[in-house]
Amino acid sequence: MARTQLQAARAGVVTPEMDRVAERENRDPEFVREQVAEGQAVIPANVAHDALDPMIIGREFATKVNANIGNSDESSDLETELEKLHAAVHYGADTVMDLGTGSDLDEIRETHVEYSPVPIGTVPLYEAVKRAGSSEEITTELLLEVVEKQAEQGVDYMTIHAGILAEHLPLTDGRKTGIVSRGGSIVAKWMEERGEQNPFFQIFEDLCEIFVEYDVTFSLGDSLRPGCLADACDEAQYAELDTLGELTDVAWDHGVQVMVEGPGHVPMDEVAANVERQQEVCDGAPFYVLGPLVTDVAPGYDHITSAIGAAIAAQAGAAMLCYVTPKEHLGLPEREDVRDGLAAYRIAAHSGDVANGLPGARDWDDALSEARYEFDWREQFRLALDPDRARSFHDQTLPGDNYKEARFCSMCGVEFCSMRIDQDAREAGEMRRLETETDLESSPAADVNLPPVGTHDSSGLAELEKLDEEALEETADD
After folding, report:
1. Is 183 annotated as a binding residue?
2. Segment 23-32 mean pLDDT
3. DSSP single-letter state for residue 320
4. Is 98 known as a binding-site position?
5. For range 353-361, the mean pLDDT
6. Is 238 annotated as a binding residue?
7. Which residues fall in a compositionally biased region of kind Acidic residues (predicted)?
8. For residue 383, which of 427, 445, 334, 324 has the smallest C-alpha distance?
């Protein structure tokens, strides 16, 4: 009997999850099944995640965005992490990864699964380090125990750092920033101190058996991703990618869904080539990229430096973008950082879909442009990616209700507003009046390419709306 979405798809079965994905993507369910069967798309859907609203990750579908949250020994608690989760869902995250390394990891993870309508991802290695006390004390038995427990808790996908091998480590010696992946550095240290091969690589087929039982999706970690432009596209990065391609085939042979994680820091002119190389090496398995950051000079603005690379990657075929917040390299993100990071990445993902000509993707842009031209301020705010932010910026200088009817904003004022001038000229008969109207109700676009963002079926989450309101009221006030 099929136990995973991949096994069901190969058997010709359209699962309820595939039906829901087809509805959200405005695609035929049979097309969804074919993409999953071929390994070109994944539906992360642990059988124990009861409140999940299924989604799909694949280059033939709308580009998705992941938000990383998580505590540390220095900061954050359950309440704060739950606020981050709700902010992420509200502002449009398609998945959320809990990268916590602090205390109460089990309670936080279980709460996230209980209150999340989007897939939850984790990095089991972090908990293994916490339980072992140090990286060198980790055993393969402990790794399997941690992975199985997290699978039982309902985690939908896990980053597994199985691609970094002992023979890859010397290839990093000439780098400027060495190994910047947290998981990669831990595994590298373990191999150096114990003189053994990567423990995840050793037990990979055992992991596949656990993943099949719960239908957990592999997110094969890029342990040797470049941490600066100078280290991009080097021998170490590509040696690991070749191993990830081999592991993808092993997972598929076991009936396990797979996506592959990608770099890091990459110059703009090499981003597309990275995506193309991954697609070739990993036989089209969905590519899940962090950024990439296209310059290293802007700490505090890396949601921007990385969103540039993310947009290029999306156009080139990356299936999911892992957001970067303004706090990257500087500190643990808080709720407002989550908001800013998601805005940057929703823009990157949508821009990629528009560039790739996905059905209806540009309709949202057209509808907002029409509202802007007509000075329909309330409609502009409603259609905005972040309506509260758009309204707040407008009202900082023109707060009165009468200005919601005004044919100008504070940027140009009355006399120099180009759209008012253009409208007046057309009304006077000097140019033809513009007659356009985009009907978003009939748009063929996927849900994520239509307003509002953060639209998930939360029927299984009785307290979600209440918790969202409490968390987000304070965000809006800020």
Report:
1. yes
2. 98
3. E
4. no
5. 98
6. no
7. 466-478
8. 445
